[in-house]
Structure formats: C-alpha cells, structure tokens
Amino acid sequence: MLNVVLINPEIPPNTGNIGRLCCAVGARLHLVKPLGFRLEDRYLKRAGLDYWDKLDLAVWNDLETYLAATCPVQMVLTSSKRGEIYHNIGYKPGDHILFGPETTGLSMEMFERFPARIARIPIDLNKVRSLNLSTAAGIVVYEALRKIGELPEL
C-alpha cells in the first residue's frame, strides 16, 4: 500500500480531493500538522464527497511524530524545481510520497535531510510556479502504482 503524506496542507479542497484519490487506489493518507483548516471543514468534506469515512487516514501532530511512528524506510519527496522526473523514480510498495504545503512546497531542510529520491513533474516554470497539489498527487500516485503493479482493477 502506498502512503501519501501531506506536510502542512493549507487548502481544504485539495486535501479532500487527495483523500478521494487515496480511497480510489487503496492508499493511506497521512496529514502532518499544522493544517491550514479543520478536519470538519465543509470544503474538505465536499471535495472528498461521501468517501471521507472510507479513507485510511492518519493525522500527526508534527513531522517528527510522523517519522517516529511510521519509520518510513522508503520516501519519495516531490518538487516542482528539483529531482528526477517522476516517471524515472523506482517506486516500491509501501513508499511514503511526501508533498509540501501548497504555497511553498517542501522545505529545503527536507531535501537536505532526505535527498535520496526526489520526484519532479516537468512544467514550464516560465509560465507557472507549480501544479495544483491534488493534480500533482494524482500524477505521481498513479505512476507509482503503475510501476509497482498495483493499479486498481477495472
């Protein structure tokens, strides 16, 4: 099972959409506080539709608590500016795929601390700074599932 990890997400509909994605593919969603919203937020629930109660969800008070509790051996950090193109990454079952806050992405400290696997979705940085978080999550998660042979059956 893949693990999708949102570090300090800020926008409720993005998190709701990613929760729905995780339900669709059987991934676990980890939310690392602080969050930019309350889990009861109506926009979060609306984006996740009626799937939110089916979501395999873990909420962590901070990054260190998440790391200590999950001991993720295999992490993939995401970036719009650095790293290997996402489809060249060697994804593995059980990977933890980390996404940063919508406004800043993952911190430089994260890239320095965990430099091994960094996935980048190529975009024209002269036109946009980044993709929407839920769009980026969908692209990377489906590629990871394809690579490890865990795409949902039709």
From TrEMBL:
Pfam families: SpoU_methylase (PF00588). GO terms for cellular component: cytoplasm. It is found in: Cytoplasm. Coiled coil: none annotated. Its EC number is 2.1.1.207. CDD domains: SpoU-like_TrmL. S-adenosyl-L-methionine binds at residues 100, 121, 130. Its main location: cytoplasm. Belongs to the class IV-like SAM-binding methyltransferase superfamily. RNA methyltransferase TrmH family. TrmL subfamily. This is Putative tRNA (cytidine(34)-2'-O)-methyltransferase. It comes from Desulfomonile tiedjei.
